[in-house]
């Protein structure tokens, strides 16, 4: 009898193909299926030729070729296709079989699907997979959540294909119940938006303010990649700036309109829903939106005057300040992202392992960096750490970075170069370390026009007061609640 497959995969596009090649290379036999069935034969006879793959031409074939408990993983377009495939697979599975979604699904969908699949006596795993094509083939970062009973059955496959850090620890561990894995993957993508945007702001300042060429910037990024900023995104930026087409930097020929597939927006929406100040990522999403308004910007650039860009300072000092600005802002972005995960964990009853999440992001994924090792240490030192800025190492680093970071923001604003993420992060930092913010005035305004009441610094918390500010209003206060 032919050997049964260890796992089945639906979706032979870029991620699926590379992930099953990775699984096969680790000794697993994989059954593969795709909606457009010709792609199955093309793959099995092409990149998969001579390897341990079983090509299936229907869902029935796929399920029949699997060892029990059966594991069926989908890597298809997020959204309706995932629900459609679940409905197609469920009738063919038995109690205890496992459905896995490895796509970029929105976490509320994963919460709903986990409940639905469990109601059928089956188990569900929603796992973030990061690292793109190369990661899928050579070792992605994987963030699985869903039915906890499924984890022992998928752990070996997942951890064997995942990226590994220097000591061999896999960048994959159980994240938590229902949508926790996809939530953490979503925050990963939001942080990716932020890291990319602050790098772009540094690039614009070097180019427009300091007048640097792509070659000069390439050298700066090469240096930065050796220190605190050492990361995949700094590394690829170095390479992009060094890439030439017909002797000229290709990057300068690319249209300045950014696309997005929604995960940054979801992160911002989740932050607004949970009331978490996720300012750097929020600004990064809006920066992409503004970039996409190209025609309007071209129009505006012809009629609206700003300051003349003029830099008379010390260029080497400015480049050093830029490095500090990037590092300071990056710390803020992760502090905000972790703050969001903590609030979501409280809201959804997830028991997230924050150090473990840093380790999952340490290799294989787009935001991989040396810095994540220090986040892991911060949570090892204090698993209850309420904010990364209160960890002694990061507090010291951000304090050391702030002078240069402030000079960068001030110079950019004076010269009219937009740096929304670097500045919003600095404002968050100053707000976070302020004992008193002007919200006393804000509460007075709310009470003035809407009788929304206020608490007083000379009375215990929880007592609410209303003042008849004009003498014309009544004494009836509005109900006090937060939305
Ligand atoms: P795509 O996101 O392009 O999806 C292609 C797969 O979805 C093919 O198998 C295709 O079948 C199937 N599909 C589509 Br499209 N519409 C369908 C429908 N209406 N019903 C059923 N199947 C449908 O592939 P990908 O880039 O490999 O990504 C797979 C998943 O992984 C996505 O959720 C993506 O967001 C996520 N992801 C991608 C990356 C990346 O770098 N690309 C990284 C991390 C995560 P067909 O062959 O018949 O058209």
From TrEMBL:
UniProt xrefs under PROSITE patterns: 6PGD (PS00461)
GO biological process: D-gluconate metabolic process; pentose-phosphate shunt
Gene Ontology MF: a single term: phosphogluconate dehydrogenase (decarboxylating) activity
EC code: 1.1.1.44
InterPro entries: 6-PGluconate_DH-like_C_sf, 6PGD_dom2, 6PGDH_C, 6PGDH_Gnd/GntZ, 6PGDH_NADP-bd, 6PGdom_BS, NAD(P)-bd_dom_sf, Pgluconate_DH
Organism: Sunxiuqinia elliptica
Record's protein name: 6-phosphogluconate dehydrogenase, decarboxylating
Top-level lineage group: Bacteria
Limits of the 6-phosphogluconate dehydrogenase C-terminal domain: 181-470
Assembly, per entry: Homodimer.
Chain's role: Catalyzes the oxidative decarboxylation of 6-phosphogluconate to ribulose 5-phosphate and CO(2), with concomitant reduction of NADP to NADPH.
PANTHER family according to UniProt: 6-PHOSPHOGLUCONATE DEHYDROGENASE (PTHR11811)
Catalyzed reaction equations: 6-phospho-D-gluconate + NADP(+) = D-ribulose 5-phosphate + CO2 + NADPH
């Amino acid at each position: 009898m032919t050997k049964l497959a260890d796992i089945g995969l639906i979706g032979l596009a870029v991620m699926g193909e590379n992930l099953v090649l990775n699984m096969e290379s680790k000794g697993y036999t994989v059954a593969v299926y795709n909606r457009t069935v010709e792609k199955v034969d093309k793959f099995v006879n092409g990149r998969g030729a001579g390897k341990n793959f079983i090509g299936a031409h229907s869902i029935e074939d796929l399920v029949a070729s699997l060892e029990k408990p059966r594991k069926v993983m989908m890597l298809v377009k997020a959204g309706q296709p995932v629900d459609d495939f679940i409905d197609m697979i469920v009738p063919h599975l038995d109690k205890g079989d496992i459905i896995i979604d490895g796509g970029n699904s929105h976490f509320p969908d994963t919460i709903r699907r986990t409940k639905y699949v469990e109601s059928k006596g089956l188990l569900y795993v929603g796992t973030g997979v990061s690292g793109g094509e190369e990661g899928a083939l050579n070792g992605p970062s994987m963030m699985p959540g869903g039915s906890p009973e499924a984890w022992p059955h998928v752990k070996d496959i997942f951890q064997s294909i995942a990226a590994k850090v220097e000591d061999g620890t896999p960048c994959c561990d159980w994240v938590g119940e229902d949508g926790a894995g996809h939530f953490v993957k979503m925050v990963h993508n939001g942080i990716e938006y932020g890291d990319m945007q602050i790098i772009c702001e540094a690039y614009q300042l070097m180019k427009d303010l300091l007048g640097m060429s792509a070659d000069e910037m390439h050298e700066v990024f090469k240096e930065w990649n050796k220190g605190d900023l050492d990361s995949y995104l700094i590394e690829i930026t170095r390479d992009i700036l060094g890439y030439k087409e017909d002797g000229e930097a290709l990057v300068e020929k690319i249209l300045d309109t950014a696309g997005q597939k929604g995960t940054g927006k979801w992160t911002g929406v989740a932050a607004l829903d949970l009331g978490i100040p996720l300012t750097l990522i929020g600004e990064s999403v809006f920066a992409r939106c503004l970039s996409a308004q190209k025609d309007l910007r071209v129009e505006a650039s012809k009629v609206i005057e700003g300051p003349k860009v003029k830099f008379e300072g010390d260029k080497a000092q400015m480049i050093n300040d830029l490095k500090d600005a990037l590092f300071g802002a990056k710390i803020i972005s992760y502090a905000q992202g972790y703050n969001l995960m903590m609030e979501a964990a409280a809201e959804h009853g997830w028991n997230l392992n924050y150090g473990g999440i840093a380790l999952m992001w340490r290799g294989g994924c787009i935001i991989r960096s040396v810095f994540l090792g220090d986040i892991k240490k911060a949570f090892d030192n204090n698993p209850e750490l309420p904010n990364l800025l209160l960890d002694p190492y990061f507090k010291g680093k951000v304090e050391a970075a702030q002078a240069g970071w402030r000079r960068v923001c001030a110079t950019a604003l004076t010269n009219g170069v937009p740096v929304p993420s670097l500045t919003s992060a600095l404002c968050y930092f100053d707000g976070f370390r302020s004992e008193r913010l002007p919200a006393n005035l804000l509460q007075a305004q709310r009470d003035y026009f809407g009788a929304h009441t206020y608490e007083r610094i000379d009375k215990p918390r929880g007592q609410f007061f209303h003042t008849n500010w004009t003498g014309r209003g009544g004494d009836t206060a509005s109900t006090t609640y937060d939305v």
